[in-house]
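User: Protein folding is very new to me. Would you mind checking the protein record under this note? It all follows right here:
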Amino acid sequence: MSWLDKVRNSIPFIAKRETPDNLWHKCKSCHQMVFMKEWEDNLNVCPKCDHHDRIGPKTRFAQIFDDGHYAVLATPKVAEDPLKFKDTKRYTDRIKAARTATDEQDALINAEGKIEGHKAVVGVQDFAFMGGSMGIAVGAAFVQGVEAAISAKAPYIIFTAAGGARMQEGILSLMQMPKSTVAISRLHAAGLPYIVVMTDPTTGGVTASYAMLGDVQIAEPNALIGFAGQRVIENTIREKLPEGFQRAEYLLDHGMLDMVVERKDMRETLGKLIDYLAPGKKAA
């Protein structure tokens, strides 16, 4: 036995320290490593570069509603594969995979609760569910949210995040655009406000319909917002687009948004808007 083996064998065994796999979060913007707890305490916003990361409905509801208390509305039942669509995978298989990954029934979830003491119905699109794409289920959920708001005499607030229409549902997906527009007109007829908060990314048919019809248009910082992609536009008009084109701050400067609000200020801002647009007593 060599002297090195003797020395190594004489050292008392020390168990390897177990560390959680999710101790750190790597920012997608600045690529800095941040303690997961620090990142979560900062509302899933990078404390170093202020990058607002994408979040799902559960996290959003917990951040927006007072004391994190809310009631999720049951997801409407719709035909899941009306066109029997198949590309490299069957559409039904894609839906099952998305449900397993997100633990949600589809890309738009509604919940009821209070924001700064005011009753509100909030819808949140989950980009993790097939890119937040707008299909029959999303259209039905949007109408459900509006009807719940009318029933509760409360505003409807939607947080959009989508790559556009759901191609697996063809023309049926595009039909959700006028469907949501009619629902918004019903909300207005009831004298209730409709507030849109656009998050990264909000594109395609969602932008071309309910995302741009709010009484107040809000966006999170640096959110990508547009209809067609930048490369498609450049190839069409054969011109180079400006720096930051289709980002929230650019759209604010050019009149397409009313305000850009950081996540830490979102609940307070929404509470003030409800006060202005739906004056009355706060929820008991």
User: Anything to note?
Assistant: The chain has two domains: 11-51, 52-277. The first helix runs from residue 3 to 10.
